[in-house]
Design a protein that fits this description.
Layout (H helix, E strand, L loop, with lengths): L9 E10 L2 E2 L1 H9 L5 E3 L12 E3 L21 H17 L1 H4 L6 E7 L6 H10 L1 E2 L2 E2 L4 H5 L15 H10 L5 E4 L5 H14 L5 E9 L3 H10 L27 E10 H6 L6 E10 L4 H5 L2 H14 L8 E3 L6 H15 L7 E3 L2 H4 L3 H18 L1 E2 L15 E2 L5 E2 L4 E7 L4 E8 L2
Parallel strand pairs: 5-8, 5-9, 12-13, 12-17, 13-15
Antiparallel strand pairs: 1-2, 1-10, 1-11, 3-4, 6-7, 9-10, 11-18, 14-16, 17-18
Helix pairs in contact: 2-6, 11-12
Length: 429
């Protein structure tokens, strides 16, 4: 007779956040529960004419305050600095280092996106190839490569956040990077859970980081996505699911989670935030009908419900992608109706990008941190700037004031602009 195999339970024991509305869990949560936006006029590069004048920037951030291996800062872009700092905050929150863990049994799974260079980094090399205002390509190998720092590329490789986090915390277990844009954080969580469940690690450092507060990124996004053109009141510019929404706001940030096998966490006396019941992914596929219906979200949500073995009515809240573009919010709303049926108009929904904007891989992680803390406090932060309901977005958006949760189960959802989607379901215990 074959022995049955019980799938290990996996729980969240640490959270670390570096965001435009607060660095650390308490400042971050205080801003959420009190409705304080981090969106304001762009200050990072004054004098440059970029397509959007607004952004959600992480202010008063000094990586020296959070990163142990200071010499590594010279090969860390801002994205990486945010991610490594969030990981350090999560490790401190989990008290994992204090209780000790075999380094071979601690792994890292990180989501990251495109890490842009600054013009200054290549300016000297470009000048060396220029003669009388003409760029001479043949001089690149002869004169220009020597003007570029040998370790320059290390600042821009998307796998480097995971590398630096592993070095910072001596994590010698499985290590990988997910680069699926907005869905990266939840897909990284999915893989980290499976690493623990197959017995390859006792704990994993999981997160995502990114910064879209960059002149190249803002210009690039303006060419194929929808940035808000509002300039009158920055804090009211990002309006997920609202009738007057006109586009997203760029932001930056990172969040990280320590996840562990349940019995490992209990054995060391860890405080547990929540259990990860399920993570699932899906993609729209080809054809306009699939994209318009958000088939990727439908597949991800339905698969997560099956894995978690729960009914849609059990979900206490949805932390929506809520990008604040006319098309994306409508697609997301339609997907919830197909995936959840009649429950779609009753489940409380919050859209936290109204606080800190959109920033690729990192925003999904920061949103998940919002749900984890909401379950801890039993309160769901409201969506900012939801004033005029859109009849094409028939979801129960929490607005006006925070909502007292009636269920200890939450679902967080993210979707890329090409339909790659992910959903996770967590439960406070």
């Amino acid at each position: 007779m074959m022995a049955t195999y019980e799938i290990p339970r996996v729980v969240i024991t640490g959270v670390g956040v570096v965001s435009p509305i607060g660095i650390g869990n308490e400042p971050f949560w205080d801003s959420l529960v009190n409705g304080r936006s981090g969106i304001d006029f762009l200050t990072a590069f004054p004098g440059l004419d970029v397509p959007s004048k607004l952004a959600a920037e992480v202010r008063n951030f000094d990586p020296l305050d959070y990163i142990q291996h200071k010499k590594m800062l010279k090969v860390m872009s801002r994205d990486i600095q945010l991610g490594v700092s969030a990981a350090g905050l999560a490790m401190t929150d989990a008290k994992l280092g204090l209780h000790g863990i075999d380094p071979e049994r601690l792994g890292v799974e990180f989501g990251a996106g495109h890490i842009s260079i600054t013009p200054k980094e290549l300016s000297e090399a470009a000048v060396a190839c220029t003669d009388e205002d003409q760029f001479e390509f043949t001089r690149w190998g002869e004169d220009s490569m020597g003007q570029i720092a040998p370790l320059w590329l290390l600042k821009h490789l998307p796998n480097m956040p995971a590398c630096h986090v592993a070095i910072e915390h001596d994590a010698r277990g499985p290590n990988n990077t997910i680069t699926c844009r907005d869905a990266s954080a939840l897909l990284a969580l999915d893989e980290a859970v499976r690493v623990i469940q197959r017995g390859a690690a006792d704990a994993m450092i999981v997160g995502a980081c990114s910064s879209s507060v960059h002149p190249v990124d803002i210009t690039r996004l303006s060419l194929y996505d929808h940035l808000s053109r509002r300039v009158d009141d920055p804090r009211r510019a990002c309006r997920p699911f609202d009738m007057e929404r006109d586009g997203m706001i760029v932001g930056e940030g990172a969040a990280c989670f320590i996840i562990e096998r349940y019995d490992h966490a209990v054995a060391r006396g860890a405080d547990i935030y929540a259990e990860i019941l399920a993570v699932a992914g899906g993609c729209d596929g080809g054809g306009p009908a699939n994209r318009a219906g958000g088939r990727g979200i439908v597949r991800a949500v339905q698969a997560a419900l099956r894995k978690a073995q729960i009914d849609p009515r059990d979900i206490g809240h949805i932390n929506a992608h809520g990008k604040s573009t006319v098309e994306d919010d409508c697609v997301e709303s339609r997907a919830y109706h197909e995936a959840l049926g009649s429950a779609a108009e009753k489940i409380p929904v919050t859209a936290l990008k109204s606080y800190f904007g959109q920033f690729d891989a990192g925003s999904g992680a920061v949103e998940l941190a919002g749900s984890v803390l909401a379950l801890k406090h039993g309160i769901l932060p409201m969506t900012l700037n939801y004033e005029t309901p859109d009849p094409n977005c028939r979801v129960n958006v929490v607005h006006t004031e925070p909502f007292r949760l009636r269920s200890n189960i939450a679902m967080s959802v993210n979707r890329t602009n090409v339909g790659q989607s992910a959903a996770t379901i967590i439960r406070a215990i």
